[in-house]
Amino acid sequence: MAHRTELNTQIAHLTGLSKHTIDRIGVNLNKGGLLLAGGRGRHAPDMGPEDLKNIILAILGSESTGVVFKTVLKLHMLTANDGQNFGDILLDICTDPGKAAEVMQISVLRNYPGATIYWKDERNTRIGRRQYFRNLSEQKQPGMRVVASLSGNVVSKLVQLVSGHEPLEEKSAE
Question: What residues make up the domain containing 43?
Answer without folding.
Answer: 2-163
